[in-house]
C-alpha cells in the first residue's frame, strides 16, 4: 500500500485511538497518538505530521484552544486539522470557536468510520483525485458521515 | 309643659308640647287632676315633692306616666313652684321631657356595643386587638390569648413589637408596619411572629388605621391569624414542586450523559464493524478486537440495564427473582466479562475469598458487582489492582471491590449514592458516567435486605455489597 503521510491523532480514549489507528494504517497512513493536547505544538514540531486529527473534549486544554496555540507556531500555522469529537459541538458555541481557530471540519466521532476519516484525510492532502476540491467541500451542505462544514467567516 | 294648681292639683294650662307628648288636647286636659289623667308614678311620694318645692322652689326627677292611648312614657321632670307677689304658692309648672326615645336609643347602642364586644372577645381563631397610635396594646381578645399566649393582663400596656422576632424588631419592621397602615389605611403581611413561650408561628396579619370623624388617627386595629399549618403545607408543596423540577432537569442531564457515555463504545463498535466489512483488520488482531467489542457491549449493556431498571423502579415494577447462588462464582463471571476493557488494570479475586451463598436476584446482583468493578476500573484511570474479596461474616455475605484509584473526599461520600449525582471534581469530568449506577445498586441492595457501603482514602476506595447469607442450594 502506498505511503500516504503521517497523521497525528489526539484522543484521550486509548480504545478509540487504537481503533482509528488500525483503520487509518490499513489505508496507508502512519499514525502517531497523543493522549492530550498539552504538548501539541512540540509534538507537531517533532513529528512533522501531514494532518492533525484532534478530539475536542480533552483533559486540560480543549481542542479549540489547543488549535489556536498551534496556529501561532511556524510548524502548525498551515497544518490541515480535523476536529473529531463526540462532544455535542453546537453547545456553548464550541463549533464556532473551532472553525474560527482554523479547523477544516467538525466530525462527529460516532458517525465517522475509519475508512471515511481516511478518505477525508486523503482528500485534504490532495493525495487522491476527488470529485470536489476542499473549497467546494467548504460550501457544501452538512456532509454525510456526520461532518459539519465550517460556516463562512463573518 | 303644663301648670296645675297647687291646692287642687288640677291642670290649669297645657301647651302644644304637652299635647304632643301625652295625646290629650288642651280642652281635654284643663281642669283634670294631673296625676290621675297621666297615671303618674313618682319616684317619691307627691307630698314629699311638694315639700321640696315649698322648700327650694324646684324639683327634678324621672316620672313614669301614660299617654291618652295608654302607652307608657318615662319623662324627665323639671318642676318649678309658681308664687304670687306675696310669696304664696299657687301653681306648679311641670316641664316634662320624654326620656323613652333617648333611653331606647342609648339602650340599643349599649346592647350593640355589648354584642360586638362579646363577638370580638369570643372569637378564638383570630387575634383581634387594638393598638394606640404609638403601637401599645390597648385591647385583647380570646383569640389573641390563644394564638399569642399572653393574657390580657400581661399584654395590655406593652408595645406590639414584642410579637415580632428579634431580627424584625432590630430592623424596625413593627414601626414600618404601623407607618404603612397609617399612610395606606392598612398593612397586610404574612410572616413569622413569636408567642409568649418564644415559639414561632406563621401569621397572616392585617393592621388597619382607625381614625375618628375628624380624620385624626386614634390607633390601629390588628387582626392576626395563625396559619402555620397552611404555611407548612405550602412549603411542602413548593419543596415538592422544586424536587420535581430538579428531578426533571436531572433526567435531562442524565440523557445527555447517557448519550455521551454510549457514544464512546458505539464509535469503537461501528469503527471495527466497518473494518470487518472492509476486510482491513489484520487477521492476527481479530481475537483481541473481538474481546474489546465484547467488553464495550458489556458497558453499553450495563447502561441500558440501568435505564430499564430506573424505569422499573419509578413505576414500582421492580420484582426480584430470587434464587440461591454463590456470590463468589457470580463475581468470577462478572469480572471475566469486564476484563477486556481493563487493559491497564490487574483484576483479581483475593486468595482469601470463599464461597458465600445468598438467596437473591442473580441477574441484578450480577449487575451490581459488574457496576462496582466497572467503576473501580473507570475511576482508577492510571491502572493498578482492582480486587474483589468475597466471603461471609455471621449472617451476612459480602463482596468488596477495591481499587487503587482517585479516592473519594469525605464530603463527597454522601453524594455518591444520590440519584444522578456525579462528584464535582476535575478528575471525574474525564470519566463518563450517568450518576445512576450507585444509586440503583444501593436501592437494589436495600430491596434484598442488604446494603452497599463505601470506604475511601487517598490510595483508593472499597465498595462493599452485603446481603443476607443463605444455606447452599
> What is the residue-mean pLDDT of chain A, rounded to a whole number?
82
SS strand fraction of chain A: 15-25%
Query: Biggest sheet of chain B: strands, sense, closure?
Result: 5 strands, antiparallel
CATH architecture of chain A, by name, is 3-Layer(aba) Sandwich
Regions of chain A with pLDDT < 50 over 5+ consecutive residues?
129-146
Considering DSSP H and I runs of 4 or more, what fraction of the residues of chain A is helical? 25-40%
Which pair of chains forms the biggest interface, and how many residues does each contribute?
A-B, 22 and 23 residues
Q: Over all CA atoms, what is the radius of gyration of chain A? A: 14 Å
Give the number of DSSP strands of chain B.
Answer: 16
Question: What strand order characterises the main sheet of chain B?
Answer: 2-1-5-4-3
Oligomer type? heterodimer
* Secondary-structure element series of chain A: EHEHEHEHEHHE
Number of domains of chain A: 1
Tally of helical runs of chain A = 6
Please provide a written account of the structure.
The complex is a heterodimer of chains A (154) and B (473). By secondary structure, chain A is α/β, with parallel strands linked by helices. Chain A has one domain: Rossmann fold, CATH 3.40.50. Chain A is 35% helix and 16% strand. Chain A contains six helices and six strands. Chain A has helices spanning 14-26, 40-47, 63-71, 94-100, 114-124, 134-139; strands at residues 6-10, 30-34, 51-54, 81-85, 105-108, 147-148. Chain A has a six-stranded mixed sheet, with helices on both faces. Chain B is 44% helix and 26% strand. Chain B contains 16 helices and 16 strands. In chain B, the strands form four sheets. Chain B has a five-stranded antiparallel sheet with strand order 2-1-5-4-3. In chain B, strands 11-13-14-16-15 form a five-stranded mixed sheet, with helices on one face. Chain B has a four-stranded antiparallel sheet with strand order 6-9-8-7, with helices on both faces. Chain B is rod-shaped, with a radius of gyration of 49 Å.
